[in-house]
Write a structure and sequence with these properties.
With 263 residues, the chain is an alpha+beta fold. It has helices at 14-50, 59-63, 181-187, 224-246; strands at residues 8-10, 75-82, 88-95, 98-109, 114-123, 140-148, 198-201, 247-249. The strands form 2 sheets. The chain has a 5-stranded mixed β-barrel with strand order 2-4-5-7-6.
């Protein structure tokens, strides 16, 4: 005897509802968190991109900095003398997928204070300063660079292995993976006390082409909107699955269809 289809009814179960509700709440919470992160990242990008356009700092202003955070990415225009014989190389630096180094060089201001500057990138076949002698500027030169503050490395970055650059290990001695300002100042024979900052050279037409300045990343990756949309969609999909799962046919409500009457 044919049966009429049982009607569907919404009959949620406790545990499925509990875990689905927990999952939806978590995913929507993550989406809201990513929206908040989006606003924070946009403010950070706007501030980072606006600071290089401000008036350049002079040596007096630079040396008076006690907290580098409000001044990071500001330009500084200085007349300096490089101490090329004490340069250090930051290892494992790439540019356009080419492996190389970044050259960190001590310099002396006209007033006698000594600081560090990341002059830029060189390929691994230019490790020897003799291969880029044109870029080893002598005497007093005027530079424009960005103020940077050193940051703590993550757990994937190896420890630095300092070397005394004023002795037999000079010219790139030691293994440097991140800017450890106190250790690098000590290795270069600079005074231990100094502003909590270093400089990074902007892109310039340097004789010989190396080092290549302008390695500072002013733009930041900002995928928080995509992440937020993804979490919201996943939360919505889980809610739909939960609803469809509980939109069941009530088998007890089914009835038999009436058969043909006997004549």
């Amino acid at each position: 005897v044919p049966m009429t289809p049982a009607p569907r009814r919404f009959r949620p179960t406790f545990w499925a509802t509990f875990f689905a509700g927990l999952g939806v709440a978590l995913m929507f919470g993550l989406g809201v968190w990513q929206i908040d992160r989006l606003g924070t990242k946009q403010e950070m990008i706007a501030e980072r991109e606006s600071r290089p356009a401000l008036e350049a700092l002079d040596p007096e202003q630079l040396l008076a900095i006690g907290d580098a955070a409000p001044f990071e990415f500001r330009r500084a225009e200085l007349t300096v003398r490089f101490l090329h014989d004490r340069e250090m190389l930051l290892l494992a630096r790439s540019m356009n997928r080419n492996v190389g180094f970044q050259v960190v060089t001590p310099f002396v201001l006209e007033t006698g204070e000594e600081l560090l500057i990341n002059r830029g990138w060189i390929p691994d076949d230019r490790e020897d300063p003799a291969t880029r002698a044109e870029g080893q500027l002598d005497g007093q030169v005027t530079i424009v660079a960005l103020v940077r503050r050193p940051g703590a490395p993550n757990w994937l970055v190896p420890d630095n292995v300092p070397a005394d650059l004023t002795g037999d290990d000079a010219m790139g001695g030691g293994d440097w993976y991140w800017m450890d300002l106190p250790a690098m100042r000590e290795a270069a024979g600079l005074a231990p006390n100094g502003p909590p900052l270093y400089l990074e050279a902007i892109a310039t037409d340097l004789p010989g082409g190396f080092p290549i300045g302008g390695q500072t990343r002013l733009e930041l990756r900002n995928d928080h909107l995509q992440y937020a949309v993804t979490w919201f969609l996943l939360g919505g999909a889980l809610a739909i699955i939960w609803f469809v799962f509980h939109w069941r046919r009530d088998e007890k409500a089914g009835t038999k269809a009436a058969g043909p009457k006997a004549s």
